[in-house]
Amino acid sequence: MSSFAGVGGGRAGQAIVIPSSASRFSGPESSNRGVLFRLRRLADKRILDTRGGCPMLIVMNTQATQEQIDEVCDRIVALGLSAHPMPGATRTAIGITGNIDVVDPQSFEALDGVRELVRVTKPYKLASREMHMDDSTVEVGVQNRIPIGPGTFTVMAGPCSIENEAMTMEIAEYLVSRGVHCLRGGVFKPRTSPYAFQGLEYEGLEILDRVKQRTGVAIVTEVMEPDQVARVDEVADLLQIGTRNMQNFPLLKRVGKAKTPVLLKRGMSATLEEWLMAAEYVLAGGNKQVVLCERGIRTFADHSRNTLDLSVIPPAKQYSHLPIIVDPSHGTGKRAYVHPMALAGLAAGADGLIVEIHPQPDKAMSDGAQTLNFEQFDRLLEDLRRLAEVLGRRIV
Ligand code: PEP
Ligand code: MN
């Protein structure tokens, strides 16, 4: 009996993937896809107990007899596990749950009537709810320990780029006066044009450090290269990975070694699975504090810079325990749309918001068109507070 790569051979932390291509289950085998799908759904609905590990699935041959199926079920039960036979149109599959670590895949594969053994799991293990059922909370900042997670809605705001110290102080003091303790601001800027302002780089980092010392705000700022991480890490309270770097694997591995939490923006054309796999890189590196950020994706729409994909929030919450925030500034590209989409993000279940603000948005050195002024941000905060109250959430 042939086995296939990855089945049953995974060590802890190693991704074991069920091939998602139809080819394995195409043609006469296609009913297996239905069985697999059902098992996954049961796992998703928590009908199957996945606490002891990811559920496993034994796929029987089409000709397997009832005796052979019973024999497999008995072996499963004898190991102290639960068997979940699921007859399909052409073949039966048997789900196994419990502490699947005790299962020797080869001993099952050798049984009469067995076609193959499959681990039903997401390829992102550490990011997955299968591994971590409760919502995670990531705490940001040493002074305030600002939570990002269930029950709260965390507001982060600041300019697209740090431009100078006076303006950064002004924004930080304004935010603190409004009860907002998370300042965003880029010093390494990923710009489409090489001729556009590239950020103040390390000089900007020093500004952020001084503003943080004086006001106590937590700092959210982007890192673009692995070599920047060590120094940025000394100042930042949340290391931002920008949309263009979501699959910069050396960078993901490097921030996986950092002590500071990571804000992982979704790639502008990334699927949810690709995004969670990117998070997995950071988690697998040892940094367990990852916050996802939906910042808009590329679609055919031309009424906005990007399409803020709020519909990704419920599935992200379903499949992952990681907190998720929204960025309606980059998600829309137009300041008039930021306020309604920020409220929609809260209503859709996001755990927070990152928004671009500036004392004079029209003079901003980057992203002015999507940046709110203080008055507009005040109005947004007021509406967020009102909506949060109705939804039983606390703005932090
Ligand atoms: C930003 O936050 O200013 C930024 C460049 O974000 P993104 O990577 O989402 O474009
Ligand atoms: Mn920006």
Commentary on this structure:
This protein is of the alpha/beta class and 396 residues long. It has two domains: 22-119, Phospho-2-dehydro-3-deoxyheptonate aldolase, domain 1 (Alpha-Beta Plaits), CATH 3.30.70.1140; 138-395, TIM Barrel (Alpha-Beta Barrel), CATH 3.20.20. It is built from twelve helices and 15 strands. Strands 8-9-10-11-12-13-14-7-15 form a nine-stranded parallel β-sheet. A four-stranded antiparallel β-sheet has the order 2-3-1-4, sandwiched between helices. The longest helix has 17 residues, at 374-390. The protein is elongated, with a radius of gyration of 24 Å. It starts with 30 loop residues before the first helix and ends with a strand. Mean pLDDT is 86; it is low at 1-32 and 43-52. The structure holds phosphoenolpyruvate and manganese (II) ion (MN). Manganese (II) ion is lined by residues 160, 330, 356, 366-367.
- General form: elongated
Bound molecules: phosphoenolpyruvate, manganese (II) ion
- Could you tell me the radius of gyration in angstroms? 24 Å
Estimated helix fraction: 25-40%
Distance between the termini: 57 Å
Instruction: Tell me the series of helices and strands, N- to C-terminal.
Output: HEHEEHEEEEHEHEHEHEHEHEHHEHE
Count of structural domains: 2
